[in-house]
Each structure stands twice: as structure tokens, then as C-alpha cells.
Amino acid sequence: MCTELVPPGSRAVLVYDAISPAPRCLRMFLLEKGLRLPAVTVDVMRGENREPAWLAVNPAGQTPALRLDDGSVLAEAVAIAEYLEELHPAPALIGATPQQRALTRQWWRRVELNVTEFIHNAFHYAEGLPRFTSRIPVAPEAAAGLKRIAQDRLAWLDGLFGAGPWLCGERFSAADIWLYVWLDFGAGMNQPFDRALPNIGPWFARMEARSSAAASRELLATA
User: Fold this and answer.
1) Running DSSP on this structure, what letter comes out for residue 114?
2) Is the dihedral of CA 187, 220, 27, 13 positive or negative?
3) Could you say which of 111, 157, 164, 172 has the lowest number of CB atoms within 10 Å?
4) Could you give the CA distance from residue 176 to residue 204 in angstroms, rounded to a whole number?
5) CA distance readout (Å), 51 to 2, 7, 134, 173, 180
């Protein structure tokens, strides 16, 4: 639990972690990078991310976040990953060249806009409804449709998949991490995907076999 927030002006770099898919994406990214950063856990299950102490750190009330060495805070898992890649370019998970970076961002956007956002919102409006009703506007009547759209768009993504073995061809990337973590989350939240998809099915098995897949389930503060 995040019982002690680092005050503004601190020189400590710190990850604010949580039990949630976006923080797990960042954890897997860090593991693949071989980066170890100090971390504290924000207890989102009891709503700590909606309390004044956390909102003073990240007014959006979301996790993860990264406190930088000047005391400022960077939020949004994608932005944090981009920042860390700039500081630690190897191994390149976004790309070592402009073309590689553009290709990763192309797949990343396809994954987020067409698949993972639908999984996310469907969870809010169905299995996560008791938790989120008092926090955000919810639309339970939309949940089934959102789940259907996520699966339809995943099949569409499968059709775009090239020779592989990864979304960016021979190059493993952050786009693979984001899709894997959200599909794994969905499988445990009544949103299983079709493992028979000819490209995504074998790809998911390859992702599960990476050591970072299992290790990313563990919170950074307890690793």
C-alpha cells in the first residue's frame, strides 16, 4: 500500500505500481528492459487512487505513474515507456530507428484503439461494475456489445498479422507487451479470446513462454 508518497522536489525516481493491467504492462516492459526501479504500490482495490494523497501525485487518479528525479510526475503507461526507452535505448522495445519506432507505434495504436480499450471498458461495465459504479460513469447495457467488438477487432488484427513471430515481424516490441497483458487480463475476466486464431493464438503462446510474462504478475515493491 502506498502509505508514504514522495514529496515534491524529491530526487528519488519512483514507480507507482498497482494491481491493474496498465501497471503490469509497465512491469513487463521494465523486465524486458532489464531495469530495476524503486517502487511503491497504490492500492486501487480499496480506492487509494481516488484519495487526496494520490490525487496530489496524479490528478487523473490513475496508475501507473513515475516520479522523476526533479520531483515531477509522469503518468500514462505508454508515455512512461516512451520516456524510459529514451533514457535506456537498449534493448530497443519501441525501436532503434525512426522506421522501427513508427512501426511499433502503428501496431501499438491498432492494439489500443481496436482491442484493449474495448476490453477495458467492457470490464468497467460488467465484472468491474461494483467497483467502478461510484467512481466513473458506467453503462452496463454496453458491456456485451463492447466484448463482442473487442473479439471482432482481434480477429481483424489477426488478419493483419504478417509473417511474425511478433507484431513487428522479427522484432519483439512494446506493442506485443500491451496486447498480451490485456488479452491475459481479459481471459480472467470473462473475455476469453479465440485461441484458434491462426496468428494470434500461436503468438500468445510465444508470449506466455517469455520469462517476463509470469514475472510481471508480481508487483515491483514485492519483487
Assistant:
1) I
2) positive
3) 164
4) 9
5) 11, 16, 13, 35, 30
